[in-house]
Amino acid sequence: MDRAKVVGTWAALMGWMVFAGALASAAAGPIRRPNVVLVITDDQGYGDIGAHGNGMIHTPNLDRLHRQSVRLTDFHVDPTCSPTRSALMSGRYSTRTGVWHTIMGRSLMSPDELTIAEVFQAAGYRTAMFGKWHLGDNYPLRAQDQGFDEVVCHKGGGVGQGPDWWGNDYFDDTYFRNGKPEGFTGYCTDVWFREAIRFIRRNKDRSFFVYLATNAPHGPLNVAEEYSRPYEEKGVPSNMAKFYGMITNIDENMGRLMHELDRLGIAEDTILIFTTDNGTAAGWRARPGKPDRWRGFNAGMRGTKGSEYDGGHRVAFFIRYPRGGLVGPRDVDQLTAHIDVLPTLVELAGVQKPPGPPLDGRSLVPLLRGDASYRPGRTLFVHSQRVAYPEKWRKCAVMTERWRLVNGRELYDIQADPGQRHDIAAQHPDVVVRLRAAYDRWWNSLSVVFDRYVRIGLGSDEENPVRLHGHDWHVTSQAMCPWNQGHVQKGLMGNGFWAVEVLRAGTYELELRRWPRPVDGPIEATRARVEIGPVELEKPVKPKDTKAVFRTRLQPGKMRLQTWLTTPDGRTRGAYFVSVTRVEK
User: Fold this and answer.
1) pLDDT single digits (tens) 22-39
2) What radius of gyration do the chain's Cα atoms show?
3) ∠406-409-414 over CA atoms, to 5°?
4) Which CATH number does the domain 32-368 belong to among 3.90.1280.10, 3.30.70.100, 3.40.50.1820, 3.40.720.10?
5) Cβ count within 10 A of residue 448
6) Which regions of the chain are under pLDDT 50?
7) How far apart are CA 569 and CA 524, in angstroms?
């Protein structure tokens, strides 16, 4: 039985169990499991919050939530976007899920993973996702394929990236509601929170799970001047002022969300989490500029987004659940990570987890409830593998509560030296040997997935046509990947293949374009060629044609899809946009 059937069967069983339990306890009143609202921002570092010591940034609502919450002060994620999101969703190290990059076909999470949303959906919750998914834009990888009843999102890794609606710029954009394009009014962050609040209002009388993942403050740093100007007037450099302005806008929206939970009378019964996906992207300048200019704040840590040092992956984590006794201010200083969120929420909510892959994370409930005797000795791992194929020891950290082994060579006592300035590997060779051995075991457990592809499905009823973009090409070099719209505009001369699976036999139409449909610009080629599995097709085109269309019979199976457009000067590049439609059985 496949994973979807297992989850479906489990959901049906859980539904009957909930119904039977409700009948049995009708005299005692309705049973209500806690709601869950999980907010994660993009590229906001630990130091980009006023409550963490940043005297410049204005975040009064996050500061208030900080005071009301249990805070995990040694909480770690991956150093970049998609890996963190896959680990958060699955409770497993990101590389196991097929995700170790943000582009190049390696930001696609395997559909075999069991997500938080699927767990809560199987338990009878209404589930919704708003904002940035970044784990696959096509069936069966989309958020709506992975347990979410309602989805409003952009595509790709950010608003305005290649797969996203052409021309989106954070203001009055077109996003996708359950896969269908829809125009929205307002700033992107305002849209995500507005849609989340509307969902919460509609479902206030039943248990719900909301995953609210902002694309801000990820670049491009677009925000209204009313948010950035006050920082510039205080001497903050222009880009950092915009970055801070985006965070202040997030903070305002957090205030609206918290107010709405209070107004609806459900704040006590709601698990509210705030966290971020990696270290700061623009909130810290390692080298000081002009003496009168603000340098930023990184809470004393070394490194920023993408770094193997703590500044790249130690982030904020606030959790508030008044009915469950999780109120602050209280700090938990034990080593924890994104892989712990799923098992923790399962225990806090009292739901059953359907069968799925084994978890790497563990429930943090004993820590959250203040069990001082619970200090599990843990060794955790992070790495940044922004390459086509994982490389051992690349930008990695092995972590315990005391030690950080960085890149397999440098050793830091994180308690005595939180800024990681003094490498003491030579003084503690036994610790280095022990942590290297732990890394070896972890690496070997991951290596079974390195040669696997997470595939996009073709020919399903759930998504037909399938619209592909070069953002998800498998390429050997990032320089060949047109992951944003600027690359398309400039005509980047790259090429790669999509890993696909034809799900149904039939006649398929493949439409190759250099520009997206809304632009409908010239293909700028003299010949077009496509290979999909054993099928090879080629035809001449006129340079001013807007597309090249092929039809062919395809049989079910896993295969590669690649295209070539020959330009008038004899060079070739892939078609940035390809639509695949099953037109006949």
Assistant:
1) 333 333 344 589 999 999
2) 24
3) 45
4) 3.40.720.10
5) 9
6) 1, 5-7, 9, 11-30
7) 10
Please report where in the chains the tokens 């592809």 appear, as a residue: 453
Cα 132 from Cα 152, distance rounded (Å) = 9
CA 161 to chain centre: 15
- Judge whether 109 and 163 are in contact, CB under 8 Å: no
d(CA 397, CA 79): 11
Give CA–CA dist 381/404, Å, rounded: 10
Task: Answer whether 271's CB lies under 8 Å from 319's CB.
Answer: yes
Which pLDDT tens digit goes with each residue over 435-477? 999 999 999 999 999 999 999 999 999 999 999 999 999 999 9
User: Which residue carries 């997935």 as its tokens?
Assistant: 449
Hey, which residues does 320 pair with through a beta bridge?
Answer: 272
CA atoms of 491 and 482, how far apart (whole Å): 9
The token pair that represents 555 in the structure block: 């049989």
pTM of the entire predicted model? 0.94
Sorted by where each begins, the domain ranges of the chain are: 32-368, 380-449, 456-584
Gap between the Cα atoms of 28 and 252, Å rounded:
40
* Adjacent-strand bridge partners of 151: 129
| Maximum pairwise Cα distance, the chain | 80
Work out the angle at residue 85's Cα, subtended by the Cα atoms of residues 326 and 262, and round it to the nearest 5 degrees.
Answer: 35
How far is Cα 437 from Cα 443, in angstroms, rounded to an integer? 10
3-state secondary structure of 2: coil
Does CATH place domain 380-449 in 3.30.1120.10? Answer: yes
Tell me whether residue 434 is exposed, middle or buried, using C-beta atoms within 10 angstroms of its C-beta: 0 to 12, 13 to 18, 19 or more: middle
Q: Rounded to whole angstroms, how far apart are CA atoms 210 and 195?
A: 11
Contact 14, 123 (CB under 8 A): yes
Superfamily holding 456-584: Galactose-binding domain-like (2.60.120.260)
Length of the chain: 585
Contact partners, residue 348, CB within 8 Å, separation at least 6: 34, 271, 321, 324, 326, 365, 368
Residue with tokens 């924890």: 336
Contact yes or no for 574/552 (Cβ under 8 A): no
Residue for token digits 């597309």? 547
**CA nearest 317: which of 289, 345, 288?**
345
